[in-house]
Amino acid sequence: MNSYRIDGINGPIVTVRGATELQIMEMVYVGVKRLVGEVIGVDSEKTTIQVYEDTAGLYPREPVEATGSPMSIALGPGILGNIFDGIEKPLSSFAEQAGAFITKGVSVPPLDEKKQWDVTVTVKPGDVLSGGEVYAECDETQAVRHRLLVPPQQHGRVVFAVPGGAYRLNDCIVRLEDDFGNLFELTLCQRWPIRTARPMRERLLPLVPLLSGQRIIDAMFPIAKGGAAVIPGGFGTGKTVLQHQLAKWCDADIIVYVGCGERGNEMTQALTEFSELKDPRTGRPLLERTVLIANTSNMPVAAREASIYTGITFAEYYRDMGYHVAMMADSTSRWAEALREISGRLEEMPADEGYPAYLPSRLSEFYERAGRCITLGGAEGSVTVIGAVSPQGSDFSEPVTQNSKRFTRCFWGLDKALAYARHFPSVNWNTSYSEYADTLGAWYAEHIAPDFMACRSRISALLAEEARLMEIVKLIGSQVLPDEQKLVIEIARVIRTGFLQQDALNETDSYAPPEKHYRMMKSILKVYDQSVSLIERQIPVSEIIKTGCLERLIKMKFSVPNDELGRFDELDAENEKALSAVG
Amino acid sequence: MILEHLGLDKISGSLVVLENVDNVFNEEMVEIRLEDGSVRAGRIVMIEGRRVVIQVFEGTRGVSMVNTRTRMTGRPMELKLSPEIVGRVFDGLGRPKDGLGEIYPLTRRDINGSAINPVQRVYPRNFVQTGISSIDTLSTLIRGQKLPIFSGSGMRHNELAMQIVRQASVADDERFAIVFAAMGVKNDVAEQFRTSFEESNVMSKVVMFLNLSNDPIIERIITPRCALTAAEYLAFDLGMNVLVIMTDMTAYCEALREFSSSKGEIPGRKGFPGYLYSDLASLYERAGIIQGSRGSVTQLPILTMPNDDITHPIPDLTGFITEGQIVLDRALEAKGVYPPISVLPSLSRLMKDGIGEGYTRKDHKAVSNQLFACYSKVQEARSLASVVGEDELSEQDRLLLGFGRDFEAQFLTQSQTENRTVTQSLDLGCRLLAQLPDELLDRLKREEIEEYIEPFREKEANNG
To answer: Reduced to 3 states, what is the DSSP secondary structure of residue B66?
Structure first.
């Protein structure tokens, strides 16, 4: 491969003088320490390279080595349960070599090349394989079976296959011969350029919800498998806790968690928590179905920009095996800021708030990689993307929030006022929306209850009514309202504190199944309906409050365990009796 | 062979340009010798072929195109370190300024540090008792945390920081050290801190880095990096628990803005450079605990919010990086409340795992949530009362107003020498909550109300 010399250095940007044969977006090695870089600009006078590692200590005239291929990552068994930086450096093996601090120029293979995998080969000589079809399988962790797929662009007839047994990452498993007689070797590992979406056979409509066990999401603003959602919120509104909750409890098969420009301690916390917590479905540690990407805020900014793409490429790889994958990106604002920083160093013309003009197109490219589909191999898989946004000064009109809103269909707006009152999750029910609610209605009707969506609409109507009444209360106090309106305010209080608030740190309440959401909504509405008829008979609201029904409803999330939903019958009966006693 | 470059090719603000330079690396230190023999330190910030841009720390006053000799040192910006730095005073570039002579270095460290590998971090969960009720119960400080104080000019943030140092250090053993970094603060303020350290007998454990308001602005960009390098050395090499106080971060950010604009960079919000977030993160993220070391770095940065505006880029970006914040409020200060901590926007992100049974007290989480929830209702009741008058309020709202008054007068307020244990603070919180009826205590379980709140109600009933 060709080699060039460094001419200029400015922060993470390095230039090479004169015309080169480097391609745009080609991966290069910079300097004697072989720092990873990517070509981002080419003209007849100079080539511009962004470097993914710290450039301090780099000399001009050090070599730049071309690789001939775009920025790509290794895909194969050993990804799950691991923690990588933004360009797929394995941080645990890195620590073994370099100690507690991230020093530059340490070269570690991304996936463990020495580990032996117990491989079952599913093809025999003579079989004809096309891109995306399975040729071997192995247990990557006890929870997840890793299917090895023919790379999308390759196809041919199997001319050689090893017998099943223990193999290492780079051992040849299958040899393919295409129509022109070219031979390809398939190992346990393949590479894929991170900025290119992996192909699929056919896109499917998102008709199945991604259940997260969080009431405000599953019941009020549901997201579909293959959908995209955005969580904007200022600092301290609980974005990260909500992202962690989703990563822990959502019913995806694989979780890709990208900590993009966030706090180091948070990644440590995720790492320890995920290895301690058990997946409710498999009983294995959550870490066995999770891959973490940590590019903390003080790690090099260019790698932060790449980390989102590395994450979604992992997600697509597992989708192609026929898994449902959920990817959490915390936070896309830091990614956008990395774009802005690099754009600034390139002296590009800034658009809105200094962000480059191509910010919207980059965001849409990224969110469009979400989706439910039939894979090339014929299985069904999905990638769901949930991106956190950290708007400056909690101002949702800033470009990243606004553009993310355009390309996603689910908006969970976090609210500072709710967070200050320690109402968590602080998703504001008046500003949030989900465009999936209608298409998912059929699923809820079939799997949970026919009137699930009807209950949901009544609950949100009550909340909207409360919001309207509170405007009046703010002006003249609640004393003057008629009783039926006072009842709305009381019931809305029950909905807010009893239903929408969910305690991430409480064992019973951290996760709740959708059946429980339904029963809770039902119990609240039953008490409301009965109270309305009492009020029609001139019984004051204070009498209804005295029965203790409302307090019982508020505590039901704790008092009814997730696996004893029958207890709701007792609760309903008790409430009915108490209210009947009044009237 | 030592090469010296005669003269310069361009001077612009604190940046100078040299042409025809070979064999230099990015961020190398240079020495610029003037005709009068004085030496200024500088650092290479940009290389374009054989043209280099150098940032001169002490400013370029008196420098001309011809009167200088520039020498490349062949080293990055390093700080000389040894256990002897404890008890010493340095200038903003890490040079001794207390007249006690040079440090004999056991080691030298690049002041930019390196990012801690998240795999090697230890998740912090050790509670630090500051003796201040509103911090201990509502936004608990954890060892290894970065918890900034958001203040405004004229508020008593310095007193608060000093009180925390005094009370948090008393409980600690001898592996305790304080690193104090002053950036653009007045001489009096630095002196005030020094006096306070002496009074509480910790001066022998303090390392001071002083860049006062009349010192060169460009040095200010280096000062916190020197301080954190010293802190990391004390914590991770010598196993000490280090508390780093950095004041004032606003002055630091303004220096960065000045430097950025003199480099001709495209400005972002309010003229601050687009990389302000990354730059601040490279400081704040240098807090924490790493595996295999007994020490820890805890940061207590102080920043004055320009115009008391929490959405200003400096506090805003800081809040996104740090693990919570303590916000001071001018209205409380005006009411005479000390410390004037506005509890609702204040937050400690690491609190949830560092409190409760085995750390502080079982009911800590529930009580603090309840105090937050009630106090936020107090605000609603107050805004209603300001419209309809207190007499028109419901019984509940009137009780809340009473609770709010007592909360500010008894719970938030404490004297500068009052050191409350966390149990005292929690009891005080429970006693105040006991004024309210059960319907308002929706964050407490029945058993918790009986165990922690009822005793105070009974006591009250017996007294009355």
So the answer is: coil
pLDDT mean over B3-7: 83
Question: Taking a C-beta distance cutoff of 8 angstroms, is the pair A481, A473 a contact?
Answer: yes
Q: Which of A392, A393, A479 has the CB atom closest to B392's CB atom?
A: A479
Rg of chain B, C-alpha, whole Å: 25
Q: pLDDT digit string (tens) for B338-397?
A: 899 999 999 898 988 888 888 888 889 999 999 999 999 999 889 888 888 888 788 888
Is A99's pLDDT higher than 60? yes
What single string gives the DSSP state of each residue in A83-145?
A: EE-TT--BHHHHHHHH-SB--TT----SS-SS--EEEEE---TT-EE-TT-EEEEEESSSS-E
Tell me: cis bond preceding A331? Omega within 30 of 0 counts.
yes
Residues A407 and A395: beta-carbon distance below 8 Å: no
So what's the architecture of B364-463 in CATH?
A: Orthogonal Bundle (1.10)
User: What is the least distance, in Å, from the CA of B311 to any CA of chain A?
Assistant: 4
pLDDT digits (tens, 9 = 90+) for A175-233: 999 889 899 999 999 999 999 999 999 999 999 999 999 999 999 999 999 999 999 99
Cross-chain residue pair B116–A267, CB shorter than 8 Å: no
Q: Give A114's contacts (C-beta < 8 A, 6+ positions apart).
A: A168
Helix, strand, coil shares, percent, chain B, to 5: 40, 25, 35
User: How are beta strands A380-389 and A228-232 bridged, if at all?
Assistant: parallel
What is the Cα A564 distance to its own chain's centre? Answer: 31
pLDDT value of position B388: 80
Q: What is residue B151's predicted lDDT score, i.e. its pLDDT?
A: 94
Reported pTM: 0.91
**For domain B79-353, is the CATH number 3.40.309.10?**
no
CA distance A478 to B381: 11
Cβ burial of B256 (10 Å; 0-12, 13-18, 19+) is: buried
Q: Which of residues 399-458 of B touch A (CB under 8 A)?
A: 439, 442-443, 445
Residue in chain B nearest A265 by alpha carbon: B123
What are the residue boundaries of the structural domains of chain B, listed by start? 4-76, 79-353, 364-463
- Top residue of A32, A106, A265 to mutate, by most chain B CBs within 10 Å, is A265
Taking CB atoms and an 8 Å limit, are A60 and B24 in contact across chains?
Answer: yes
Residue A56: which of B26, B117, B123 has the nearest Cβ?
A: B26
Are B118 and A394 inside 8 Å of each other by CB? no
For residue A348, the chain B residue with the least C-alpha distance is B266
> Between A263, A297, A475, which is nearest B387 by CB?
A475
Residue of A nearest to B347 (CA): A236
Interface membership of B366 toward A (CB under 8 Å) = no
Window 160-179 of B: residues touching A by CB (8 A cutoff) are none
Beta-ladder partners of B90: B96, B209
Q: Of A112, A133, A106, nearest to A122 (Cα)?
A: A133
- A565: distance to nearest CA of chain B, Å? 21
Cβ–Cβ under 8 Å, residues B209 and B181: yes
Examine the pLDDT at B169 and tell me if it is beyond 80: no
pLDDT, tens digit, 9 for 90 and up, residues A518-538:
999 999 999 999 999 999 999
Tens digit of each residue's pLDDT (9 = 90 or more) over A386-422: 999 988 878 889 999 999 999 999 999 999 889 888 8
| Partner-chain contact B118 A269, CB within 8 Å | no
More confident: A327 or B447: A327
Which CATH code is given to the segment(s) B4-76? Answer: 2.40.10.170
